[in-house]
Design brief:
The complex is a heterotrimer of chains A (255), B (320) and C (276). Chain A is mainly α. Chain A has eleven helices and no strands. Chain C is mainly alpha-helical and 276 residues long. Chain C is built from 13 helices and two strands; from the N terminus they run αββαααααααααααα. Classes of the chains: A mainly alpha (255), B alpha+beta (320), C mainly alpha (276).
Chain lengths: 255, 320, 276
Amino acid sequence: MKRSGRMLAIYAGLALLFLHLPLLILAIFSFNVSPFTVWQGFSLHWYYAAFQDPELAESAWNSIVIAIVSTVASTVIGTLCAYGLWKRNSPVLSNSLYLSLVTPEIVTGISLLAFYQWIFRFWHVQLGMHTVILAHISFSIAFVVIVVMARLRTMDATLEEAALDLGANEWQAFRLVTLPGIWPGVIAAALLAFTVSFDDYVITSLVAGVDSETLPMAIYALARRGVSPVVNAISALIVFGLGALIVISERLRAA
Amino acid sequence: MTQQAVLELRKVSKHFPTHRAVNELSFLLERGEFFALLGPSGCGKTTTLRLIAGFEEPTTGQILLNGADIAHLRPYERNVSTVFQNYALFPHLTVQGNIEFGLRRGGQNHIAKRVRDVLELVQLDGMESRYPAQLSGGERQRVAVARSLVVAPEVLLLDEPLSALDPNLRKQVRAEMKALQRRVGTTFLFVTHDQEEALSMPDRIAVMNGGVIEQVGTPEEIYLHPRTRFVASFLGAVNWIGGAGVRPEATRIARNAPENVPHRAARVMQSNFLGNRFHIEAALETGERVTSEISRLDQAFAAGETVYVWWRAEDELRFQ
Amino acid sequence: MTRLRSWFLAPSWAVMLSLFLAPLLVIVVYSFLTRGAYGGIIVAWTTESYRRLADPLYLTILGRSFWIAALATVFSLILGFPLALFISRSASRKNLYLSLVILPFWTSFLVRTYAWMFLLRDTGLINTLLERIGIIRDPLPLLYNNGAVVLGLVYSYLPFMVLPLYAALERLDPNLLEAAADLGARPLTALFRVVVPLCGPGIRAGLVLVFIPCLGAYLTPDLLGGGKSVMVGNLIQNQFTNARDWPFGSAASLVLMALVMLLLLASVRRDAKGLL
């Protein structure tokens, strides 16, 4: 039994390596002085190039703005939704949220594109930051609901009754008793929503306008064109940035 | 001058889809009383409490607080306060924050002083800045009581207030709670399934079973003169000898047949020495078992002895 | 009370209705309309888009999507099961390992897919290393084929297989394996005759959680498959950008949705029966 146990451990190590090595290699080669996949020395100049590229800077800024706005909106809407569903479930709404999670991104994306174009017949608007933000809010809500709902389920339901008993109305009970109790879960949900929004490519690429290119879209364009260590550099930054957010989110979820 | 009933339930019913939790319940609560709702689990006592507090609405009937019907008011519109079984202290607030909570809702003044006063009342002076997680079970219970008392409710509702406490603690807390109620003068209504609590704490008890009240009365009345078999066997033990019911402490044992009192022949099966008394189990000729409790200062009996069990006619329980 | 609750749910309702359900309704309608001359929509009702999907060309694409998704799912199961088993047996470090498994998934899907481009392309790391060592002279065509897509999908969705497997394995009574050993079963036999069958629901959950996103994959076949590994997702995207045939794209989308929902219903019902 012990030998098979060791074999299992070795296998697990290899499997975890498989999961992490590609990203580590990407990060390592972002410091390679040469653009080829032969290590020729340490350099930060790809990072400088990345930071100095105006297009990249603008797309990064767009990504941040979109992520922040959609995160705030989806966290508020999603938290209220989770609370309402926790009190009493609405099967139609729960199932719609679930459906939005399992629908392939390409289908969500093109349906939104078709929907926007149809609306644009009546409303003189174009594809732009706002269409992207609305799309992001739409697909982020389900994530927020799941995280906040999980937190709500650990809460003592009699606390709200006690609040009502002592003179608070339903809104005050939520604000003064329940919300402080689920606060770490709300923050965790917000961090998750930010990550999901920042990283989205498929849906964003379909509903973005000419002036609303996001960082994933810029990376995609670069990746398509050919070998570019600049992509490695940005990738490394994104991975570690988003990774840090997720680690914090996980810690909060468990708090 | 008669005391006005502070709380009255008139034919209150609560029907759930699966069962009737409460069925045409009616009773009165007098101002300043310490009242208990006693019954087995599922009898509807907790539902009744929740109906009074406002967490449930009655299907039919009226709930009158000082004469006004509150049956369909929200909990925060009623001047009653609840102490929950698990205390439901707000974990993110200190003791001060918890106790203030009800006062801040009402926009009261002199909050700090009132909080200090009520903490003194429950003997928790100086604990204002502790968090519930830092308190013992007994301390948490007292904070819960303080939090509900400080809003000066007409009636204080308590849901099995001692059940979450350590059994060793309960006797002491019972005495403290009774003293507290006397001092404060607020009407207390508590719910319990523990007969010892029900006999020692309240001024009056209502015994509930299957959603209805079987009897209301003082502890002595209920114990000595139960109106139904259920009430008799729920509060204390009963020997059913033939058709009569007799309490063990009223079931006496003699070596010779007594005269002019009901009696039956029996054989002693077991005699347990319990320190201050003997607990004797005897079998009648019919095979029925009876128990008798006698003081250790009385005559002792040994297993196997042939005896007579007898009781005074006035100790026989009569039912309606 | 219900009034307040309606206010809490109203914003979500608004978003779901207007930004999720309404768009789906739009493409349902579009799937029955006709393509305009310059790529728009003509309100002429027809089922032609659906009929065109039955063309062998598109059936091939659908078949390939199934095939690739199935391969990726099976490989995820084979690779993921031992990993899940290991984690369920490591007492104190379980959470650490679970975090290590799930963390990469949340960083960036695009970057993770790009990483395999970096490794697999002709001038990528693997070819460069092999050439350096002298094993090969010309670069191997590792990228832009079905295999690369399967690899990319397994890499991306492996956590979705590991987590439900882990959950099922964790719930197993450790005494069962001891009992099997007691009765003379060797470890591998015990594994296949005792552990695997009892993990049924976990395995099914993992299969569904991996197969569905793989079936509807777009980015992975786009970047790793080149023009040769067109899957349904690429087909759909193409209709809405280059080909400008929105009715056809809508029809394909709905067929994909229908397949996804059938798979979900099938798995749910199966497990509901299992509970009986």
